[in-house]
Amino acid sequence: MEEHRSAQGVRKEAEEPCTCGGKIPTSKRETHESQVVHQRRRAMRTAREAASATRSRGFITELMR
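Now predict its structure.
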């Protein structure tokens, strides 16, 4: 388990970005990914990405006309 010190000198666990867009401590990763919160957050993120893609596609279509 890797740890690094933050600017305050407080021992802080290394965090890694998660597939749901959040950041979580490495040791809590497995429990985090099995939680409902994780699935919900990831679903929201994919929905948001899909919406923005659709929006930009519509914008491009408008430009082509």
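The CA atoms of residues 26 and 45 lie 21 Å apart.
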